[in-house]
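Subgroup meeting minutes
Present: P.N., E.W., G.H.
Scribe: E.W.

1. P.N. recapped why we're keeping a running log of single-chain structure predictions: easier to compare across weeks, and new members can see raw inputs and outputs side by side.
2. G.H. added today's entry (86 aa).
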Amino acid sequence: MEFPFDINQLFSERISILDHTLVAGRKSAGRPDLQAQIASIIDELGRASAKAQQLTAPITSASKLQSSSHQLYLLQHGQSNGSICI
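Output recorded in log:
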C-alpha cells in the first residue's frame, strides 16, 4: 500500500505497536501532523481490509483505536518508501 508521504519518517522500527495515542515511537510524540498521517494510514488500511472482506464498513479506524484500549501492530514491509502492511 502506498502513501503520499514517507512512512519511514513515521515508523523507525519494522514492527510498530500503536494504541489510543497514535504515537509510533519518539518521532511522532507531540507532533499532530505526524499523528494525522498515522491516522490516515490506519483509516486506509481499515478501508482496504473491509473491501477485501466484502464488509459494508471498515472495522478498523483511527477514531475507533483512539477510543479503545486496543493495540494495533503494523509491520513495515521492506525499506521502500510508502509501503506498509499489517
